[in-house]
Amino acid sequence: MRMFNSCITQQNYSSNDTVLHSSEKLHAVLIVLYIINLAGGTLGVIMMSQQLFHRRSQSVMTIMIISLLVLHSFMLFSIPFRLSYYILGEWKFGRFACRLASAIIYLHMYATFALYAAIIMARLLRLELRKCYTAAWVGAGWLLGALVVTPVLLSYYGTSKTYRPCECFQFHRELQEAHMVITNYCLVGVLVAVCAVLTAIQLTVIYRVAVKYWPDVNSHVEFRAQAKSFFFILVTLVCFMPHHVFRVYYIQNYNLDKDQKLLLYNEVFLALTTMCCLDMLCFIAGIAH
């Protein structure tokens, strides 16, 4: 694997064979994760798109799923660029493309989490919104993301420091800025707090419904609906939570990371967040609807 680590190795790692071998293993993990997510995510998006086309459903849930499909498609489009970097060990697409590909994965993660939270709350509160209202809210969210959040993020993300042209996804020096540290802590705090509250509420609702309909809980639509909603919380706990927990540790210790091993661990946890795109395969399998 040393043959493709030219730029990365020259900049980031010492000549110590143990450190270099460890970095190569982490690069291999990144490549495997992204290949799995690209293949599984693409298959899930295609299969779910076909199902929606044949069903021609006009429900609120359909609008949410279509939004997830679009989000996943944008993220999946960026994965080949990441694979190219980790396989070749060199970024060949320019600085703006690097910042865009890096920003997409964060935009995808938080937008997906927002959609998950909206779906969970709609089911918990049994909201029966009209399709036009749901479409309006989702459309407003897309406009806000496309016209405000994304331009602002690209205007500041990865611009305060100088990086080598062959490098990418290594914006850790941005953490020297106080506002970047505060922003990261706020994002971690919000996601963890929202996830904790939704998890507690959802488990409580599932418990009450299970007690109410015991022992024939599986035969009741209400229990199955709440159990399926918990799927979104599980995705958040498995895919998003590890990255945010590690992010706190990384922010506090990145300046001690002489071999930049923590940087690669952070990239592995970030790659784990893209596994949420496999949720479409779970939909196809009937785990969530």
TrEMBL record:
Q: Which superkingdom does the taxonomy of this entry point to?
A: Eukaryota
The record's keywords, sorted A to Z, are: G-protein coupled receptor, Membrane, Receptor, Transducer, Transmembrane, Transmembrane helix
Q: Where do the coiled-coil regions begin and end?
A: none
Compartment annotation: Membrane
Looking at the UniProt entry, the stretches that span the membrane are: 26-48, 60-83, 103-125, 132-154, 182-209, 230-249, 269-288
Q: Which GO terms describe its molecular function?
A: G protein-coupled receptor activity; oxysterol binding
Q: What is this protein called?
A: Probable G-protein coupled receptor 141
Specify the species: Geospiza fortis
